[in-house]
Amino acid sequence: MTMNRRTFSGVSLAALLARTGSLRAADETPRRGGTLVVNLEPEPSSFLFNSNTAGILAAQVVEGLVEYDESFKPVPALAESWEQSPDGKTITFHLRRGVSWHDGKPFTAADVQYTVLEVIKKVNPRAGTAYRAVEAVDTPDSHTAIFRLSEPSPAIWAVLSSAEAPILPRHLYEGTPPLANPWNSKLVGTGPFVFKEWVRGDYVLVERNPTYWRKDRPYLDRIRFRTIPDPGARAAALETGEVHYAPFSAVPPSDVDRLRKLSNLVVETRGYGTFVPAFFFEFNLDRPQFRDKHVRAAFAHAIDRQALADRVWFGLAKPATGPIPSAHAELYTADVTQYPFDLKKAEALLDEAGLPRDAEGVRLRVNHYTMPYGDLFKRAGEFLRESLKQVGIDLQLVNLDLAPFLRQIYGERNFDTYSTYYNSSADPQIGVLRRYWSKAILKGVAWSNGPGYSNPEADRLIETSFTENDPAKRRALLVELQKIAQDDLPSINLLELQHFSIVSSRVRGLSTVRDGHSKALRDVWLVR
Amino acid sequence: MSSFETTGLGRFTRDRGAVVAGIGLSVAIVLAICAPLLFKTDAFAMVGKPFLWPGVDPRFPLGTDMFGRDILTGIVYGARISLLVGLTAATISTAVGIAVGVVSGYFGGWIDHLLMRLTELFQTMPPLVFVVTIVAILQPSIFSIVVAIGFTSWTQTARLIRAETLRIRESEFVRAAFALGLSPVRIVVKHVLLNAVSPAIVTGTILAGSAILTEAALSFLGLGDPNVMSWGSMIGAGRQVLRTAWYIAAIPGVAIVLTVLAITALGSGLNFFLNPRAAD
């Protein structure tokens, strides 16, 4: 079979793109060198636990004990191997030898001990809960770290990578409050890139680590993380090739279709499985009009979630079937009560609930607080209002800024309904379960159990799952919880929002696995 | 010699722009009032396919937006809000401005001093920032927007009326009225105010135009009343898709331009109508 090389690679690349949307073409040899320009928005204020974009920055410089593969199984990073005792209360990590910090000091088990006990457990706002059970980290020798847990904590296996548990140099952090340490803005790590320079409001520059323990990595000489606050300017910078990679939905969804049609850009939606914003509609269960489950079900039947995904998010979202996003395949189930779009059913339910239409055709007047995260959520509020109007529910929208929104909803609990999203995170224990746990009804705590939902059976399932070490049994508990959540319907699970990256067609080697967006860019290279 | 009425109207009708503007605005007001009779659905109803360009579907002569909402319905309902905000806010600010100006100019002394320092205080703050702050504190609604615009844009009128009052106060007929022993209230209302009111009305039309623009800016920034359709919020929504469906932002933009132009033209016509000297 003879085929001109150019035609061949063109065809195979097109075929690959068509089949998998992959950014990697198998027949190409990686090219060394060059500077990758990445847009990060918003600009983080430090490397540590600061925002989703801070995580991307940190991942280049620091590393976790493990990384995750395609099926979200841990694979070696700073730890070469590990074993867990049958009761789940002892985890032993055998650390990699010959690794040094960017300042030349050797990496040892003391760094792991310090980071886990003093940093992750105490100041990581998300993954801290999974580390609560870690009581001690023993270091019998300089390259063994043994986690001693008071009870099993299966969620810890989802938060061992640099995204949630970056291992920090003890010699630079010890004795200071970790979040106030000046090294947070000029991080020293063991990772593939070395921090070089941060010009606030402009860019962060990292350079290849010449002594990186993984031979022949990274390919790139430099990564420049640029801040471009205006979405129009961001789109233009991507179009002209000035920026090669923009993670975390850098342009409005309405602009994506246009960019998708350009030959020099690719829109990548994979790699965000640990960062699925689950968008939902919450009822204040303290309000008498929402005590009746049939009224809540009527709301659910009146909302066409596919249309919401298509019209507000331009298809960059899909209807949610329950509280746990489908990306968490090992815990997700679709086999739960669904509330399909059905206006007649919604009207019938409201009639049965004793809520007839008045002279103006209105059955129920309720307020609705929209999520204060920009235009999309205001548009979503308008969509919800129009949907519910069709069945005689008058939704009065209230748009507030973030601080008054949090005060109104979680502080004073003075609302009828609101909509918001919570990030599913690496494990539902971090991002989902608090919505259904009665102990998360915490007046004054932002993003807690807003509806005030309380069901002893749900509590039991959630609390048992915290320490259930057998994956199959843990799944059974959380499947049961998903069923209860959809039956009781304290809140309507509307959509799984889809983050996306915009990538230049010159970029190769970008990870598309579940936590791909938060990985180091050490395998990335640029085609000429 | 013909009466003041006829010459005034005569001067007004000689200003073609003002006549056209007056007719256009009247039509807009009638349409805005009759909106619920003209359209079966309200402006937020998702009635058609999204992104229909103007003229593609005869049911939606101005097209539909990203939700499939009829833009024509939105424009007509938006006119209600723009005109309502424009007229009410202008009325409030003119009333406040006249009151402050007359009291300040007529009584003088420490009252004048106090009121003018207050006016300066309001003038030193950028009006849009001031309005944004008030609306953010009060929660965005038509009421809070009208109040915010009304109570931040009266300074110009106050200054103007104060100057007029100072001039009229010294005129002979006011001195005569004073000598006859008329009460200050009567002198202010009958003699000062009546003579100072025409510049206030002309200024009021300009304020109405700028109030419409301010409301549009607020809605564009997402600080409008989310429960009513306004031109500013239509532009704000259309901005998202400006590069693919520019008509969604452009049509309400044209509506704002035409309305504010018409109001300004009407103001200049009113100036001819009310001020005999302006005709020369």
The gist of it:
The complex is a heterodimer of chains A (528) and B (280). Chain A is of the alpha+beta class.
Notable traits:
heterodimer; A: 528 residues; alpha+beta; D-Maltodextrin-Binding Protein, domain 2; Dipeptide-binding Protein, domain 1; Dipeptide-binding Protein, domain 3; 3 domains; four-stranded mixed β-sheet; 19% strand; disordered N terminus; B: 280 residues; mainly alpha; MetI-like fold; 0% strand
How are the SSEs placed, and which strands pair?
The complex is a heterodimer of chains A (528) and B (280).
Chain A: H1 5-20, E1 35-39, H2 52-61, E2 66-68, E3 74-76, E4 79-84, E5 90-95, H3 109-123, E6 134-138, E7 144-149, H4 170-173, E8 193-199, E9 203-208, E10 222-226, H5 231-239, E11 245-246, H6 253-260, E12 265-268, E13 277-283, H7 293-302, H8 305-311, E14 317-319, H9 343-352, E15 364-369, H10 375-389, E16 393-398, H11 402-411, E17 417-423, H12 428-431, H13 456-467, H14 471-488, E18 491-497, E19 501-504, E20 507-508, E21 525-526
Parallel strand pairs in A: 1-10, 15-16, 15-17
Antiparallel strand pairs in A: 2-3, 4-5, 5-7, 6-7, 8-9, 9-10, 11-19, 12-19, 13-17, 13-18, 14-18, 20-21
Helix pairs in contact in A: 7-9, 13-14
Chain B: H1 4-14, H2 16-38, H3 71-107, H4 109-124, H5 127-138, H6 142-150, H7 155-169, H8 172-179, H9 184-220, H10 231-239, H11 247-274
Helix pairs in contact in B: 1-11, 2-3, 2-11, 3-4, 3-6, 3-7, 3-9, 3-11, 4-7, 5-6, 6-9, 7-9, 8-9, 9-10, 9-11, 10-11
